[in-house]
Amino acid sequence: MSASRIGLILPSRSVSVLNGGNVWFFGGGAQDPAGYLVSGVRSMLIPSLLPPFPPQSIALSGVSERRRGLAQEKMTENGVFSRDKVLTIDTMNPTVKNVEYAVRGPIVQRAMQIEKELREPNCSPKSRLFGCICSHTQCVTLLPKSTTLKGVKKPFTEVIKANIGDAHAMGQQPITFFRQVLALCSYPELLNENMFPEDAKNRARRILQACGGGSVGAYSASQGIDCVRQDVARYIERRDGGVPCDPDNVYLTTGASDGIVTMLKLLVCGEGASRTGVMISIPQYPLYSAALAELGAVQINYYLNEEKCWSMDLSELESSLAEARKHCNPKALCIINPGNPTGQVQSRQCIEDVIRFAAKERLFLMADEVYQDNVYAEGCQFHSFKKVLFELGPEYSDNVELASFHSTSKCYMGECGFRGGYMEVINMDAEVQAQLSKLVSVRLCPPVPGQALMDLVVNSPQPGEPSHITFMKERTATLSLLAEKAKLTEQILNTVPGITCNPVQGAMYSFPNISLPEKSIKEAKALGQAPDMFYCMKLLEETGICLVPGSGFGQKDGTYHFRMTILPPTDKLKILLAKVKEFHQKFTQQYS
Length: 592
Ligand SMILES: Cc1ncc(COP(=O)(O)O)c(C=O)c1O
Prior knowledge:
With about 600 residues, the protein is α/β, with parallel strands linked by helices. It contains 21 helices and 19 strands. Helix content is about 40%, strand content about 15%. The protein has a 7-stranded mixed beta sheet, with helices on both faces. Strands 3-1-2-4-5 form a 5-stranded antiparallel beta sheet. Residues about 10-70 and about 135-150 have low confidence and may be disordered. The protein binds pyridoxal-5'-phosphate (PLP). Keywords: Aminotransferase, Pyridoxal phosphate, Transferase.
């Protein structure tokens, strides 16, 4: 371990040494020669109580120069301690600084600011004098009661957000059965009421029985509640036409994100040319690039083929792997299917090719299948990696290591706030799996209400049960509406000269190619912005439409895109698309 690695000093006894107005704290040394043991209570650190201490004697305590420099405190004139921050932009974990997450990046922050500006103007000292109409507490008191808040003038009255795959935030209604069971689990007194169907009550009783103390407020087993993992295993078996699933290989997670990051943590190690490399698609969902940056892994890009509806291309996989092997140790291949941000559904042939490739190249497969029910296009079908793996025969099913991920956040549920998810691991080395179980136990357990919800997703009402008809009606309505909006988005975008949109076969996004005039590219570069960021920012400022620039997901050099969700309600989606169309034409003219 390198000498500059930061150590965390845990509470024990700590020593402070005073030198003039400067105090250095350091702790953990029980037998410090200075002999000044302080409890950490600031009031004890009164200069007159401690003799002046020459800095050399601090070295005796065994604390390095660097450590002292980090924790220096100064006494200000009025006797208050002002302390240099231990945690500064220079001393913080550098890998965190490399993390980027476009889905909630600068465009979204600006959109939130604009929403606020629309509600209330910026107040200035002058406007305060005259009775400012903002909602800041100081100013509101100056307002006559009848004043209505209104904001700055913009060429639009609301921000329409199509930047994030958050279905409920866009007005999608929850599945009644799910919320009934969750309500019953949260407040079991309701089990005595007549307002809930019997199957919802039975389901809640079953979940509560499996919870510690009969409460969803208790911790669960770290891998997840037993009966939920069993239900997940049965669901996977049904989904995959009977391919067996061992509940011991199922881990319930805090959304799919948690499972993905946990798996990457297990995979990443090494230094220099032996550092772990992980292959991810470009464009990609930025959780992957962010997690790899945070873990200090090498991101290996493989490009999806836009001309062939964002399919995976074997020769591209091969060349990107060969190139990566020159400078890192490629260990894993991640696939998102159906795709985010590109909205494609990979064919069965493509999945077979990828599995064969992974087997040949000894790569661990990570299959992100959170959109497994979001398939809209005719002729497209979701094929799980696990099913295809087993259908390829024992040469593959006994050897290829696979982790696949699912979530309560997407599909027809859209319940991303509950943070439910699972991962299944296949052919994982037993010792590694023991490490995985240990790793998840450190964080105790995923949210129990999220686990309960995952259970309902994999064990939904069956024909003959009281809730079945309503459940099916709601599920079908949500998925049909998404399919309609997917089509509408593709059709309207393709009517705009300079925009080309692949069919939205699945998931919740379109990722159209936009041609940008040279002049706008130059102007963006002069401002230090990616050209599609420049475009999206202008779109936001001029129309109130919030999209994410393609550069946040990665794209081939010289191509530009934006990602747009298909989630806004149909009337808003139509307005949004019409505004994008108008804006694109205006933008093109302006910069031509
Ligand atoms: C491809 C993909 N994987 C994982 C996630 C994370 O989902 P969760 O909310 O389950 O963590 C998302 C969220 O948008 C996603 O699009």
